[in-house]
Amino acid sequence: MSDLDLKIWRGDPAGGELVAYRVPVLEGMVVLDAVLWVQANLAADLAVRWNCKAAKCGSCSAEIQGFPRLMCKTPIAEYGGKVTVRPMNAFPVIKDLVTDVSWNYEVNKQIPPFTPSEKDLSTSEPWRMQQKDVERVMEFRKCIECFLCQDVCHVLRNHDLKSAFYGPRYMVRIASLEMHPKDVLDRRPMLKEEAGVGYCNITKCCTEVCPEHIKITDNAIIPLKERMDDVYFDPVRSLINRLTGGGRKSTEG
Amino acid sequence: MNATSYETIETDVLVLGAGGAGLRGAIAAADAGARVVVVCKSLLGKAHTVMAEGGVAAAMHNVAYQDTWEVHFADTIKGGKFINDWRMAELHAKESPERVLELERWGAVFDRTWQGRIHQRPFGAHTYPRLAHIGDRTGLELIRTLQDRAVHTSGVDVNMEVTVFKLLKSEVGRIAGALAYRRSDGSLILYRCAAVLLATGGAGKMYRVTSNSWECTGDGTALAYDAGAQLRDMEMVQFHPTGMVWPSGVRGILVTEGVRGEGGVLRNNGGERFMERYDPERMELSSRDVVARAINSEVLAGRGSPHGGAYLDITHRKPEFIKSKLPSMYEQFLKLAKVDITKQPMEVAPTIHYAMGGVRVEAETGATTVAGLYAAGEVASGLHGANRLGGNSLSDLLVFGKRAGDAAGLVAKADPKAAQANIDLAEVDQAIAELTAPFSRPAGENPYQLQAEIQEVMSVHAPIVRDAPGLKAGLEKILDLAARSRTCGTGGTNSRAFNPGWHTAHDLHSMLVNAEALLRCALERKESRGAHARSDHPDTNDQLTSINYVVERTPDGMQVRTERRPPMPEYLAEAVRRSYARYTPEEME
To answer: What does pTM read for this prediction?
Structure first.
């Protein structure tokens, strides 16, 4: 097989450029193999994150030919001898293909954790849940936190509204808590305010790049928007809720 | 930035590693009232625990009412070929159900039985269906649950992408701190603490074909050894029977035992279900050492698949069943090998997977032989003996992560001044000089080249079946590589900012300590037992059943000595005896 013409963005916060490498091709090679070959043979200081190499940890996110993907899951055969790899664009560069994704971890801390009822917490009996009830959240819990959905989201990527919108990953996270059969906390006030679910205008780019095939927009964001609308934009229910205080514990107070 | 300046961070308990054991330990130590800093080499949530697929073993008897902790204990001891620390195996079998249920109360979502209980699947060498699971991504669920619990536990801080390169002791020999560098900019940190909990995982990266990631370089084992702690059973490394073999780029990636648990069968190139010849009773669900050697033997006998493995076939199950029970396997083969496992068999071969040996710990507390130093999870030794059963690693992390975290937290609380103990600053300077030395050797060897040579030596000289001449030759080569590694460079520029060449130069030391200890112990154990097979000593020697090999650092270098384990108390011996009578195939139905 012939060589691969691999261009990798090299640089740091001060700037950088695409550097070309020639990589001998092996059958079934993925982009990460080629990048690691460069690191071992041509550029020992090439910065790249990776761990499992099996699409289970979500570390090796990058933009391959301009498209956000996991490098470990992308066969170079798809590109016919030429590939360009750049770091994720929505996050500040640290070096080469490594970006500063610490903002995501800060956002996760803001989301109130799993909160079962007092009754469920105090019982000594193991909990019972039905498979069909847990399957709803299992889709969300497949998330490997590769942050490709955050990278492609135009609210974060083009408008840099990180202060206003938590991004698709954390809509999935909130959905996994809100739809958990044993969770009783109401995160709808937070969805409207801090999490900024209203910023999503359903372009579904996040769903398209998700390596775990989570239907982020259809199954997480739209149901969350509907839940929030129920509280804040349905006039009758809004009045009832205001009078009764709603059925769930609120994230406010 | 001054090349030798460092930031000082004070805490009570320093946890090294953010996999299952590290996070469970951090939560436990914080619950005991200690301040905790978790240090991890990668980003939080990426630790190797995410790779665990099949499930977590716990005798909850949700599927098989006959299951008890005694049966789980006996399975673990028999699987470990009787050299396990029996007290660890007892605690593990008794406490894992509680740890699994606790995980559920922290938000983990397991697959259910029709009555709504946690479902349990059958697995190799477990008498009853025992593995609580979430499809084939149990490790991810476990780590995400613990990660969220830890970041919302007050008193727990996480320092991501930080590597510790030396443990420091006070003048009375207690652990008092650790030196580390940040990967992002190469800046240095001096941690001062009352206790260190090692939860650094395994050392699979010293082999060429492994299911482990770049991180698994045996750092904790080497840090403990350098600090004077004892290691144990280092000859015992597990070849997982089923790793991917093709394409070459994915060679070694794990194929979960869940495939066999859900009914997958192994065949050779003649279509023969060869496990009938190796273990007619348990077949594909025999213990991992047996299945791995069986595949190895088939390949050596010329009955292997085109890329040197065996066929693993689950096509007799319905496509919907396969996709729901083994979703990530379906995806992995489709994407990486262009194989649809609902229609075609997988090609699999043994891959280095797990270190049963590691730091010697006390069963109840995870305390090592150095005061203030604890270890839990894969870096610790004892629970699994000569061979680990599938599913026993996740329960190991939970049970002993908690126990070690409890103990470290209590010690730190008992002596609030311990974190301010004196540290020899000359030792600090010396360690920093060693860490940064590769920068001053522009003509030094490329660390990636040395890493590849270590992997080559271990793959050739400590393979699935070993012999004395091979091990001896391997040891000589590893000692030679250790000398060369002390003069290696960074292989590239001298920037300290995210420089993997420099990081690798440092990782070599950990890999070499693990490799040397493995080879020395493997030479000493003149028998075949569990994962340790010797062609020159093919039989198990009953005289060695009560023997463990212990590794120590001495002024003359690494020494291995034998140690006799006290016999099991009668109630445990009885549990093992009864397990032979208990198992009948009818009961499994």
So the answer is: 0.95
At residue B288, what is the residue type?
R
Are A44 and B184 inside 8 Å of each other by CB?
no
CA B269/CA B280 separation, integer angstroms:
19
CB B426 within 8 A of CB B486: no
Tokens of B137: 């991504």
Q: What percent of chain B has pLDDT over 90?
A: 88
pLDDT band at A230 (very low <50, low <70, confident <90, very high): confident
Give the minimum alpha-carbon distance from B152 to chain A in angstroms, rounded to a whole number.
7
For residue B260, indicate whether it is catalytic: yes
Measured between CA atoms, the residue of chain B closest to residue A116 is B105
Q: How confident is the model at residue B587 (pLDDT cuts 50, 70, 90)?
A: very low
B240 is catalytic: yes
Which residue among B35, B61, B126, B240 is the active-site one? B240
Calpha distance B409→B31 (Å, rounded): 8
Size of interface A-B (CB pairs under 8 A): 170
Q: Tell me: the pLDDT tens digits for A104-131?
A: 999 999 999 999 999 999 999 999 999 9
Question: Who contacts B167 (Cβ-Cβ below 8 Å, separation ≥6)?
Answer: B175, B177, B178, B196, B223, B224, B226, B227, B373
How far apart (Å, rounded) are the C-alpha atoms in residues B404 and B47?
19
Chain A nearest C-alpha distance from B588 (Å): 23
Q: Which residue in chain B is spatially nearest to A44 when comparing CA positions?
A: B501
Helical residues (DSSP H) of B241-383, grouped into ranges: 258-261, 275-278, 288-300, 319-325, 327-336
What are B127-167's pLDDT values in tens digits? 999 999 998 899 999 999 999 999 999 999 999 999 999 99
Confidence of residue A235 (pLDDT cuts 50, 70, 90): confident
Q: Are strands A249-250 and A185-186 parallel, antiparallel or unpaired?
A: parallel
Q: Which residues of B275-289 are buried (b: 16+ CB within 10 A; e: fewer)?
A: beebbeebbbbbbbb
- Residues ≥6 apart with Cβ < 8 Å to B581: none
Whether the predicted pLDDT of A252 surpasses 60: no
Q: Which amino acid is at B418?
A: A
DSSP string, B198-267: E-----GGGSSSBS--TT-S-HHHHHHHHTT--EE-TT-EEEEEEEE-SSGGGTT-B--THHHHTT-EEE
**Of the residues B130, B260, B293, B317, which is catalytic?**
B260
| Residue whose tokens read 């060679």 | B251
- Per-residue b or e along B163-184, where b marks 16 or more CB atoms closer than 10 Å to that residue's CB: bbbbbbbbeeebbbbbbbbbbb
Average pLDDT over residues B262-286: 95
Residue B136 phi, psi (nearest 5) = -120, 35
Give the residue-averaged pLDDT of A57-66.
Answer: 97
pLDDT tops 60 at residue A89: yes
B171, pLDDT greater than 80: yes
Smallest Cβ distance to B213: which of A46, A48, A53? A53
Q: Which helix (H) or strand (E) holds B512?
A: helix B500-524
**Residue A53: which of B149, B253, B491 has the nearest Cβ?**
B253
The pLDDT value recorded for residue B107 is: 97
Cβ-based neighbours of B405, under 8 Å, separated by 6 or more: B13, B15, B24, B25, B26, B27, B28, B29, B31, B32, B197, B376
Q: Is B37 helix (H, G, I), strand (E, B) or coil?
A: strand
